[in-house]
Specification:
Shape: globular
Strand content: 5-15%
Number of strands: 14
Distance between the termini: 53 Å
Bound molecules: pyridoxal-5'-phosphate
Number of helices: 15
Order of helices and strands: HEHHEHEHEHEHEHHEEHHHEHHEEEHEE
Strand order of the largest sheet: 2-8-7-6-5
Largest sheet: 5 strands, mixed
Structural class: alpha/beta
Length: 458
Amino acid sequence: MEIPFAEAWKIKMIEPLKKSTREQREQWLKEAHYNVFMLKAEQVYIDCLTDSGTGAMSDRQWAELMLGDESYAGATSFYKFEAMVQKIFGFKYVIPTHQGRAAENVLFSYLVKEGNVIPGNAHFDTTKGHIESRKARAIDVTCDEARDTQLEVPFKGNVSLEKLEKVLKENEGNVPFMVLTITNNTVGGQPVSMKNIRETSELCHRYGVPVVMDSARFAENAYFIKMREEGYADKTIKEIAREMYTHVDAMTMSAKKDGVVNMGGFIATNNKDWYEGAKLYCIPFEGFITYGGLNGRDLNALAQGLDENTEFDMLETRIHQVQYLAGLLDEYGIPYQRPVGGHALFIDADKVLCNVPKEEFPAQTLTCELYLEAGIRGCEIGYILADRDPVTRENRFGGLDLLRLCIARRVYTDNHMKVIAAALKNVYDRRDSITRGVAIEWEAPLMRHFTVQLRRLQ
Ligand SMILES: *Cc1c(COP(=O)(O)O)cnc(C)c1O
């Protein structure tokens, strides 16, 4: 008999989960105005809201916390962290920050000027925010394949070189850098191939434009390159990661993802001018350059997290679990964005709740139904998140309407995946009877999804 796959770790510490009854959940969801962001975490059984900062640290990371050096300047923790970043990414200059958006804020304060154009493969919301708040423009140059949710291609996060060249040509002299996001979060955690990374940076460099890698899920991206791209099967994750970064000029990192810490981020580069420029913004925004908003112990845990999460077994366990859940959904015929990416599943709510009119927000309705069914918290990535058109103030129904289920790193077991899949199946089986959705009672003018108050229509 073939020995089956199993996790590359065992469990040393557990955190009890709280179950609830359907009656309780109905009450809680009503009190939360049908917005799962307003639920208390203890009212949730399995939390798939985000994979950011929700990972479980290893025994070695917890041990590193005890070794933290809390000196204001020059702490050993900084040098340990700096050495690990230098080793994994090959960048000499390293600035810690308290999270990914802080890294963007510090670096972009130096690089982005009013009127600039910054192309990228689907900028993450905070990245876009930090560009637009400086009166610059973010232009999406993701490949067209990413738009077809059912198309199975290995590197759906890739940059379209044609789209990129058009932007570079039309805006010569006005593009301070390009943002290459790995994996491509916005289109579903889809990877970018090494070939595309190389060709993207060659093209940018031909136009004299540097490339900044938005690196939150760089290790998952390296895993997909190893598994899917010719010539990489025998390379280690660390070798692949190192190669990815030889092509680009700098990185911003949300360490809350592939760093497997609960808080943290950094900037790294070989460009001395950028380093000197960014340093000036680190001090007022984040703190002195050897701690950047983090505790010494956090820097230690992050160094360890980067080291162990760039090992194959860790990533195999992680991606295997996400793919296991996707396999169950295939079995039940539940439509999701294909192929599944590295950190989350995106359920196509329009194809599930066909009887709920788009004006009543099918994906938000599905998010509510899944919570009511089994206490599972997902997140709407759809018409509510899309906000209103800034000019007409109409809802924007042009994009996709998805329920995102993020899988936290090293937190849940495959049995929890079975619970998620079964709960989805139960909702799916009674989809025809769900004919009404939700209506907005109150909303903020911008980023409304966090605080929106809804009413359930009957
Ligand atoms: C999470 C994320 C960020 C922002 O990082 P935070 O740590 O949440 O501030 C930026 N880019 C990408 C691709 C991300 O996934």
